[in-house]
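Dear Dr. H.,

I hope your travels went smoothly. While you were away I took the liberty of generating a structure for the chain from your last submission, since the lab meeting agenda had it listed for discussion. I wanted you to have the full record in hand beforehand rather than looking at slides cold. The sequence, exactly as received, is reproduced here:
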Amino acid sequence: MKIIVNPQKCPQNHSCPSIAVCPKNAITQRDIRSLPMIDDAKCIVCGKCIRFCPKNAFEKVP
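The corresponding predicted structure, in token form, is as follows:
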């Protein structure tokens, strides 16, 4: 199981608010106009980003 960012749901026009809630600092964003990236090696699939994202852009996938 891992978490991805759905580019169809993420507006990619702001700093990603879910970065602040990730307990492992697994979410990064190159700049405010880019899609957030998840480092699978750091991500513990806790789901905090999924619950926090106002656009529901974070999704759990097998």
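Two observations you may find useful: The longest strand covers residues 2-5. The CA atoms of residues 20 and 56 lie 16 Å apart.

With kind regards,
E. W.
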